[in-house]
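Researcher: We plan to redesign the surface later, but first we want a full-length starting point. Tokens attached.
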């Protein structure tokens, strides 16, 4: 589209979109669009041609059909909390931003089938609440749960703090409803746990980051409500020692082990520095810390079980100190520290993030080597290492010194990514464990992904999105 054509086409598109969603479904003023055009980290700034907010699947379908016929690119957005720039449009002013924010209905809760059918724009915390109301539990839990949406969770295959027990978002979905790039609706809203009738299309759309279709609804699995919890904070002198503690817990607590969240001393310090009213849970210095949680569906004393494990951990030298939570408020304080890391990083300055996964058995060696590689680059770099250690997922982030210009930040980012991801690749890990590829890791995907896998992915993209309108410039 050349510059003279653009205003006419935009005018045509806007009037057609308004016919579909009504004036209340369009956001076109630049000051109103800004919050959609900028990501949570304020790292990417786009400029959409318009934000369209359909209220029904039929409207999504009509919007997609119109965009398909006019070869207009579409960027789907849920809660806009993604960490890889996947929901931010480019700066061309030509992309339509399709927000699911009005598609926020819980369609059905079926306690007997342990399932719930919700629209793509429903906020995760609302799903958790709705499950509680029928004495059930929806286990996906993220720091962003008050804003992120089920559609976004599915599109990024979100992880979070309970993957250890329940798996990723992929493991919590039974069926999907998807609007395809040409506007056709695929109704795959099956509430079944067994269905071997061919290729698994559901799994194709989960983790596709808005590049294959718009997830307008999903049937989610519900689980038994957890009625007892035991929470502890431990300090250890090395990653290897902490891994042994994890192993003891896994052996002795089995499925009751819900969370094992690690943070280095530097990550904890960052929270203490930037999150008001946060205090260090333990006295003394420990190189690594972990927040551990057991949970169960009946009222056996989990606290005693956890206490026994921790005693063994101390005896064997796996941990140097520990506290067991004795009240709900104490538990909340500990989780506040853990959940405060993302915000603390934003306040501290520019962080070069690495959301990586490794075999759990390789974590120790990797961290020793990668830490040495980062320190060797410059003493001014601060390593903020934390993450979902029980899943082998580290947020191996590096805080840059203050006062750098954008060119220096770019050079540091490239250097650090090469050093850290090169090592991840050597250990057969993943350069995106839970945050997705988006625009952040798109170029690196070409370096690290197996070429046959990449080719198959491109073939699928070409087949499903022939006009290449779904989230161009992201993932592939
Ligand atoms: P968005 O950011 O709006 O979109 C993300 C991607 O999904 C984009 O590519 C977008 O195009 C696509 N998309 C969104 N909705 C749809 C849809 N309906 N159909 C098709 N494509 C769609 N993530 C984790 O995995 N684990 C964590 O522990 C975690 N912690 C976080 C903590 C904080 C404080 C923050 C801010 C973020 C955290 N995240 C975490 C990242 C983020 O919250 C998740 O990636 C989340 O799943 C994104 O959901 P969203 O609705 O905000 O999606
Ligand atoms: C988290 O686990 O808190 C987020 O996924 C990590 C982040 O902010 O990088
Ligand atoms: Zn995380």
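Model: Full-length starting sequence:
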């Amino acid at each position: 589209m050349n510059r003279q054509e653009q205003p006419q086409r935009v005018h045509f598109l806007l009037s057609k979109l308004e016919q579909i969603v009504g004036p209340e479904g369009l956001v076109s003023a630049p000051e109103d669009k800004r919050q959609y055009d900028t990501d949570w980290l304020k790292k990417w700034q786009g400029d959409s041609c318009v934000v369209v907010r359909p209220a029904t699947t039929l409207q999504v379908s009509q919007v997609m059909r119109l965009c398909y016929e006019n070869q207009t690119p579409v960027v789907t957005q849920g809660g806009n909390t993604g960490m890889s720039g996947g929901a931010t449009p480019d700066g061309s002013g030509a992309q339509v931003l399709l927000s699911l924010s009005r598609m926020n209905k819980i369609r059905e809760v079926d306690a007997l089938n342990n399932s719930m059918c919700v629209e793509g724009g429903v906020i995760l915390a609302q799903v958790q609440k709705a499950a509680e109301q029928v004495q059930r539990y929806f286990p996906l839990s993220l720091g962003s749960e008050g804003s992120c949406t089920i559609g976004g969770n599915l599109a990024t295959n979100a992880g979070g703090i309970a993957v250890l027990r329940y798996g990723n978002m992929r493991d919590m979905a039974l069926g999907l409803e998807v609007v395809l790039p040409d506007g056709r609706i695929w109704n795959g809203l099956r509430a079944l746990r067994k269905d071997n009738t061919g290729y698994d299309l559901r799994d194709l759309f989960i983790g596709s980051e808005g590049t294959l279709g718009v997830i307008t609804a999903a049937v989610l699995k519900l689980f038994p409500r957890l009625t007892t919890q035991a929470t502890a904070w431990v300090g250890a002198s090395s990653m290897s020692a902490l891994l042994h503690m994890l192993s003891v817990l896994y052996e002795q607590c089995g499925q009751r082990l819900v969370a094992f969240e690690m943070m280095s001393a530097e990550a904890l310090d960052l929270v203490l520095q930037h999150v008001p009213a946060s205090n260090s849970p333990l006295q003394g210095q420990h190189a690594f810390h972990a927040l551990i949680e057991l949970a169960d569906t009946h009222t056996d004393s989990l606290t005693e079980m956890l206490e026994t494990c921790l005693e063994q951990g101390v005896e064997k030298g796996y941990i140097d100190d520990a506290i067991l939570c004795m009240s709900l408020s104490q538990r909340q304080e500990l989780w506040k520290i853990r959940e405060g890391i993302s915000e603390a990083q934003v306040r501290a300055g520019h962080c070069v993030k690495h959301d990586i996964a490794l075999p759990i058995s390789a974590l120790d060696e990797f961290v020793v080597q990668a830490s040495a590689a980062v320190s060797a680059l410059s003493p001014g770099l601060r390593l903020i290492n934390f993450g979902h250690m029980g899943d082998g997922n580290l947020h191996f982030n590096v805080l840059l010194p203050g006062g750098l210009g954008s060119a220096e930040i770019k050079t540091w980012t490239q250097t650090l990514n090469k050093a850290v991801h090169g090592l991840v690749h050597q250990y057969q890990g993943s350069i995106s464990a839970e945050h997705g590829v988006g625009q952040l890791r798109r170029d690196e995907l070409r370096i690290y992904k197996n070429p046959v896998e990449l080719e198959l992915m491109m073939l699928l993209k070409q087949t499903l999105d022939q006009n290449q309108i779904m989230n161009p410039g992201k993932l592939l």
